[in-house]
Write a structure and sequence with these properties.
Layout: H1 6-28, H2 32-35, E1 41-46, H3 48-51, H4 56-65, E2 68-71, H5 77-80, H6 90-101, E3 105-108, E4 112-113, H7 119-122, H8 127-144, E5 151-156, H9 169-174, H10 177-189, E6 194-199, H11 205-220, E7 227-230, E8 233-235, H12 241-252, E9 257-266, H13 279-282, H14 298-317, E10 322-327, H15 360-367
Parallel strand pairs: 1-2, 1-10, 2-3, 3-5, 4-5, 5-6, 6-7, 7-9, 8-9, 9-10
Helix pairs in contact: 8-10, 14-15
Bound molecules: ligand G3I.
């Protein structure tokens, strides 16, 4: 009988059992992307360190749970186009390569936005100059990733909550035509990418009506617009499922796709709910405003799970209208909501905790697909 050296046998045994257990783990454990594969993409926003795959555990979580990515910050104007003649594509190239390597749906965020705008753009007063800058910015970025970035937030947060258009360098210098112009430029640079208008508070009736009017105007000009991004920075009790449903129906009546682009549910008190408080006091980090610094009580964990379950049941009901559901971050430890609207709080808005463990909310979301 042929005998193998001890270390070879040991190596083969370890390799086999590790492959076996990984396979077994994969088949026994659900994941978000496969659970919703037949309904919509499940995405996450990733930060600089995650794009660069600096943390193996985070990387494994991203790749095993999500089939779509959005860059949380690095593609915003001030980062990607810091000076008129200078684009910084290093990180966005890595972001796109990461998505391609993992066969993910890649979303570009964001082309025209008043915030995190390059300071040199914010100072432009001349309409011809601003039009030229918009053309250069959109054409350069979208063409570079033509056929690689699948969809874009072409315009972000252009409408106020009361339905008026937000004052920005774009509105003030070019009037409302800048909206259609942005979509026209993006469509020219990549005719096959899906082009979205993206905003928060999209269930607010006044804002919803204004966004619908705006989209209709763009469509009436024969300019391509493919989708509405409802960001979904929500709370435990608001907006109601009914308000969300009305909005899905109203937006999809425009003949466009609906995506949930930045989903997270804050479990912390909001300073704006305090009656009669001075605005300056609203932003103080007091123990009252940061009630769960160590861990989330089980009762709130349950509420969050129920809230996510109700939301995903609604998403499944309208899966024919929904293209993608993206969480704004991978895990609680990384969420922007730890620093907004009050700095240094501990929030719990996502499906994975700060130790990357799935929360009750994760299982409640997975269970929505079970009959
Ligand atoms: O990059 C600097 C870093 O150099 C510095 O050391 C650090 C010190 O605080 O700040 C870093 O910049 C921060 C940046 O996030 C990257 O972490 C900014 O201060 C901070 O303001 C910025 O916040 C981002 C915010 O957009 C800015 O508007 C959040 O991470 C990001 O989650 C958030 O995302 C937006 C969407 O793009 C649009 N919809 C709303 C959503 C939430 O606000």
């Amino acid at each position: 009988m042929k005998t193998y050296p001890f270390f070879l046998t040991l190596f083969a045994t370890i390799t086999f059992s590790s492959c076996y257990s990984q396979k077994e783990h994969h088949s026994k454990n659900p994941n978000l992307k496969d659970t919703f594969k037949k309904s919509f993409y499940i995405g996450t926003a990733i930060n600089e360190s995650q794009i660069e795959e600096k943390n193996t555990a985070e990387n494994t979580l991203i790749v095993s749970q999500f089939n779509s990515i959005t860059a949380e910050n690095i593609m915003k104007s001030m980062n990607i186009h810091p000076q008129k003649e200078k684009y910084a594509f290093d990180l966005s190239d890595k972001f796109v390569a990461f998505g391609q390597k993992n066969k993910m749906f890649i979303h570009g965020h964001t082309l025209i936005w008043h915030s995190q705008l390059s300071p040199w753009i914010a100072e432009i007063k001349d309409s011809t100059e601003l039009k030229n800058v918009m053309k250069d910015h959109i054409s350069t970025i979208v063409s570079r990733y033509k056929g690689k970035i699948d969809s874009w937030d072409v315009v972000n947060e252009a409408v106020n909550d009361d339905g008026t258009l937000r004052k920005s360098v774009f509105l003030e210098t070019l009037g409302e035509d800048y909206l259609a112009y942005a979509f026209q430029l993006a469509a020219k640079a990549d005719p096959n990418a899906d082009l979205y208008y993206n905003d928060y508070s999209m269930t607010n009736p006044a804002k919803r009506e204004a966004v619908i009017k705006m989209v209709k105007k763009i469509q009436a000009k024969g300019i391509k617009i493919d989708g509405i991004g409802m960001q979904g920075h929500w709370q435990l009790n608001s907006p109601t499922i009914d308000e969300i449903e009305k909005s899905i129906l109203a937006y999809s009546d425009l003949g466009v796709k609906v995506a949930f682009t930045e989903l997270d549910i804050s479990v912390l008190p909001s300073p704006w709910e305090l009656q009669g408080a001075e605005i300056s006091q609203q932003f103080e980090n007091t123990p009252k405003m940061n009630p769960y610094p160590q861990s989330l009580p089980d009762s709130i964990q349950e509420k969050l799970a129920k809230r996510y379950s109700d939301i995903f049941k609604l998403f499944l009901k309208h899966k024919d209208k929904i293209s993608r559901v993206t969480f704004w971050g991978v895990h609680d430890g990384q969420s922007w909501l730890n620093d907004w609207p009050i700095k240094g709080r501990t929030n719990y808005p996502l499906l994975f905790d700060a130790k990357l463990k799935p929360k009750k909310a994760y299982y409640s979301v997975i269970n929505t697909t079970k009959k």
